[in-house]
Amino acid sequence: MSRRHVPPLALAAALLLYPLAVSGLNGAAFLQDVGATLLLAAISASAWNIVGGYAGQVSVGHAMFFGAGAYVPLLVFDLWQWPPLVGMPLGIAAAVLIALVIGTPTFRLQGHYFSMATIAVAELVRIVVSNWDLLGASIGIQGPATARGWWDLTFRSSVPYYYIFLGVLAVVLYATYRMERSRFGYYLRAIRAGERAAASLGVPVRRTKLMALATSAAFTAIAGSLYAFKLGYVNPEAGLGILVSVQMVITAALGGAGRLVGPLIGAIVLVPLQSATNSWFGGSGTGLTYILYGGIILLLARFEPGGLIVLWQRLRATFASKPEAVHAA
Amino acid sequence: MLLEAERVSRSFGGFLALSDATLTVEAGEIVGLIGPNGAGKSTFFNCVAGDLAPSGGRIRFNGIDVTYAPAERHAELGIGRTFQVPATFEELSILDNAMVGAFLRHHRRADAEAKAMEMLRLTGLDQIARQRAGILGTPGRKRLGIARVLATEPRLMLLDEALAGLTPSEIQQAIELVRRIHATGITIVIVEHIMEVILAGRARPGLQPGPHYRAGNTAGRRERPKGDRGLSRPPSEAPAPTSLGMTATPALEVANLQVRYGDLVGVADVSLRVAEGTVVALLGSNGAGKTTTLNAIAGLVRVSAGSIAWRGMEIAGLPAHAIVPRGLALSPEGWRLFVQQTVEQNLLLGATVLTDRAQLAPLLERAYQLFPRLAERRRQRAGTLSGGERQMLALGRALMSDPKLLMLDEPSLGLAPAVVEQLYDTLDRLHQHGLTILLAEQSVPLALEIADYAYVLQTGRTVLEGPAEQLERDEQVQRIYLGIAETAGEHRA
Amino acid sequence: MILLQVAVGGLLLGAVYALFSTGLTLIWGMMNFINFAHGEFVMLGMYVAFLIATGLHGGPAAYGPGAAMALFLLGVLVYVALVKHVMRGPMLAQILSTFGLALLLRYTAFFIFKSDFRTLPDSAISGTINLGGIYVPLPQLVAGIVAAVLAIGLHLLLTRTALGSRLLAVAEDRNAAMLMGIRPDRMQMLAWGLSAASAGIAGALMAVAFPFSPEVGATFALTAFVVVTLGGFGSVPGAMIAGLIIGSVQAFAGYLIGPIYKDVVVYGLFVAVLWIRPQGLFGTL
After folding, report:
1. For A42-56, B13-27, C217-231, which range has the lowest pLDDT when averaged over its residues?
2. How are beta strands C128-131 and C134-137 bridged, if at all?
3. How far apart are CA A278 and CA A284, in angstroms?
4. Is the pTM above the cut of 0.90?
């Protein structure tokens, strides 16, 4: 086993064992819940990463895909008492449809149009949903209160959710890894690195961008569904609000947009941080957490847009070039 | 017939960049597109490559109409192109760059990687395949650009000035590479300024002159005998041609100027002197470094080495806004007018640095007297002016800062002969009134008519200098430049 | 008659939209940069008016100038400290930078002012005026007219003055502008100041007529995006006309369909414009 494989394996082991490791501690349930939230954030951010990180098309409206994935399963339960799980594919389909509606006109224009359109459509969807009684208006929709069977995915403890999320994250990361090495992945990165040159080499730019957006939307919808299963409840603010979108972007960007584990690293840093600041500053009502978010994003954009991964690489390179300094001590 | 371009035209807003350009290329040829700047080569090239949609005409590749097809379709059909300014994917590795190209025909990663490595070996980049493309210098970038395109297995390759900015030895290597590529059966169309490339590669110059495309600017060769400037002036006051250049006080002195854009050499070693009250010409073909030299003096580009002294004061390294107030003005190549604004607004902008605002009205008057046509059109948007009028406006604008040294970059480009005559008359008059002029021109006869002294540039160096009449008779100059300038259309190697 | 009233109301609000959108399109045209915090500039203008009214006990005449000065400084600061540096970088950094700024400004305002909607204290500008059968609230009328005047003034500044000429020169051709002796950096700084100031004044004007809270910035940002897209990339006259159109569309949508849907219609119109005519009314694509 080479040295290169140690950190990822260590990380994987840590993630696997985390709920068990903390089960003996005071506040174990809370810690396990944070763990589940962390994984969910990593899934959403990894989904965003496909179109925002690799392809470089910055969407700040991914909440609409997340919301589609959250609302549809709960809706099918609300209307017909079906297990929410059944509604998940429908939610994915809805998300992909929205993706095509936005992507088709905007991907032939400069990047700014796409970004603006994602914000506008996300808001549009949120307002419509907030005022539509069928979808629960501003109150939202509830899922099953008690489990009628395992398929309702209604568990008391966070731990089963944790492992489900971990499984899904593994799948998303694996899919991203395969994509990275595939023709599609190369084309995405080429588009980000230089659209005009990419087209001159035969990259079907618009089609590729659309596929990336649709894929990203689908995975984001899955994350939304998982959220709905765990919380058993969704409302327009939590499912479709702008902060949901911002969270995905900042999580991926902080860790490293366009890198495989960037979103996961971002989640590992931000989710515990958010829990901590929420308890210090008395909940998100006062907005201090978001002042912090805003500050982090600003500093990131200004000084190290590549995120923590790039920062780490840069620091390592600086220290590697001065072996004497390191050994002097 | 592999490629057939018929009467292709393209306009940008009101500006007709290309009109009725026609070109046919048979499979297996190497065809060179040559001609002065402003002839529309790049525009034509971009239309053929699918980067730009023509406003009119037809382009057929292998019988298939590709006139309005997007660039990716062109690539799919087998048209590959490189970019004048290499557009490598900086963040990706060299191998990954090539693989993007390879993936067009090979969908599996292993196959694409093999193809990419093969192309990297051909271009000599295989040893550093895993490194980031960003580490490459310009020659490396150009090679990577070629490797990348080759990986798409094109039948036709469009090379856009693949050799600009390279040193002579690098150029030799590049020519070799182009030969090797051609030998594999790929048809090549190459836009190039450096004639040796075309001639060495046994290329056939192929762009038919259309109504817009003027075969050289020598058509503007003036009839008047030298010495008679057309104005009544006592001979004793006319500047004596022979005593200029080396002995009169240099107003502008450039010594060993070097300008590099990263690794790309714009100017390698240029030295020149402009004496007060004289007209000095900078000659040389495209890519020789004339524009870069003028831009460096004007403060638009950073000077890498050397000095530029104006009236004894060192100005190299000063930004443009600090240079104009010191009395130097540049009318840039292509005029660069503010087309959205009016004629008068353009002129007034030229006077931005004027400290004594009382001078503004007289200077404006002077501009309108020099160019009555501008006065007529003073409230019109600059975008509506004809070519000749635009040149007048550019010149007028440059004069509005009341400069002591006026620099002009290819003022006769794209202008009709009659207009060029007028232009040079005006320059003459300005010279008579004491204005020092530094003029970059591709048209040798024109420039030498008016100049007192001239410098010849080639690949970023001053290779020849002397009083104008001397150079006019110099065979070397005649052979290299007059030959090209006269017959940009047909020239058998 | 009632339709006419709706139309007038829409046009007056549209004039305010025109005012704050011209700044956004100016920056976009000049630097190919979209300021995602533009809505927050408007919101801050409202709160500056609020502070002038409650803290300094200034009258309505002071709101506009006060907001203008404060926001001008903020705009310049944002350019110098942030935008100048991210301008040449990757798209992600550019978008994130002003987005982060937007969050920072919005939640700082939340923190200081809390989330309640506020209004400015009643002043000389209150009541309703009857214009030939149409009842127009005086605050809206004043806001609309002042906004229209200022927007036109900004347009004239750009097209008729030497300073405006220099700004537009930099927007059109940076290098050529440098050859005139113009300093592009200074012009861009000025443009940011003007952009923020016009947003701030627009906010102050709206504060006179409508209640406000820290979260309205998001809606204004979106409105501005729609206006500049409809008006056309970089076109100030386009933004002005588009502002009036959007204001009217919004008013009619609110009246005919329902007040909740006035924004929905506008965002839907945005998508429609992108599909059908992305270069907008006066833009070149």
Report:
1. B13-27
2. antiparallel
3. 6
4. no
The three-state secondary structure class of B280 is strand
From CA B433, how far away is CA B435, in angstroms rounded?
Answer: 6
Domain membership of residue A321 (yes or no) is no
DSSP conformation class of C221: H
Q: How confident is residue B218, by pLDDT bands cut at 50, 70 and 90?
A: very low
Query: What pLDDT shows up at residue B162?
Result: 75
Residue B89 touches chain C, beta carbons under 8 Å: no
Give me the domain span that covers residue A205: 3-241
Distance CA C33, CA C35 (A): 6
Beta-carbon separation of C168 and B298 below 8 A: no
CATH of domain B218-327+404-486: 3.40.50.300
Q: Name the residue in chain A with its Cα closest to that of B146.
A: A201
What CATH topology corresponds to B3-205?
Answer: Rossmann fold (3.40.50)
Give ipTM to 2 decimals. 0.89
Q: Mind telling me how many Å the CA of A67 is from chain C's nearest CA?
A: 17
- B441, pLDDT greater than 70: yes
* Count of structural domains within chain A: 1
| Cα–Cα distance for residue pair B391/B382, rounded to 1 Å | 11
Label residue B225 by pLDDT band (50, 70, 90).
very low
Q: Which residue in the set A101, A110, A294 is minimally distant from C104, CB to CB?
A: A294
User: Which chain B residues are Cβ-neighbours of A190 within 8 angstroms?
Assistant: 89, 92, 100
CB pairs under 8 A between B and C: 61
For residues B443 and B272, the model is more confident at B272
Measure the N-to-C terminal CA separation of chain B; round to a whole number of Å: 22
Higher pLDDT, B460 or B88: B88
Which pLDDT tens digit goes with each residue over B339-382?
989 999 999 999 999 988 899 999 999 999 999 999 999 999 99
pLDDT above 90 (res A289)? no
| pLDDT at residue A283, as a whole number | 55
Q: What is the average pLDDT across A100-128?
A: 91
Residues of A in contact with C100 (CB under 8 A): 293-301
What is the model's pLDDT at position B435? 93
**Nearest-CA distance A155 → chain C (Å):** 35
Q: Do B204 and B31 meet the contact criterion of CB atoms below 8 Å apart? A: yes
Q: What is the mean pLDDT of residues B453-479?
A: 82
Whether the CB-CB separation of B103 and A186 falls below 8 Å is answered with: yes
- Cβ pair B349:C165 closer than 8 A: yes
Show Cβ contacts of residue A210 under 8 Å, excluding neighbours closer than 6 positions.
A99, A100, A103, A104, A107
For C2-276, CATH number out of 1.10.10, 1.10.3470, 3.10.590, 1.10.287 equals 1.10.3470
Q: What is chain A's percent helix, strand, coil content, to nearest 5? A: 80, 0, 20
Domain boundaries, chain B: 3-205, 218-327+404-486
Name the band, by pLDDT with cuts 50, 70 and 90, for residue C132: confident
Choose among C169, C181, C183: nearest Cβ to B338: C169
Cα separation, B150 vs B135, in Å, equals: 21
Using CB atoms, pick whichever of C110, C263, C270 lies closest to residue A287.
C110
Does residue A25 fall inside a structural domain? yes
Confidence of residue B205 (pLDDT cuts 50, 70, 90): low
Q: In whole angstroms, how far apart are CA B31 and each of B178, B485, C142?
A: 12, 19, 69
Nearest CB to C95 within list A58, A128, A287: A58
Quick check: do B3-205 and B218-327+404-486 share a fold?
yes
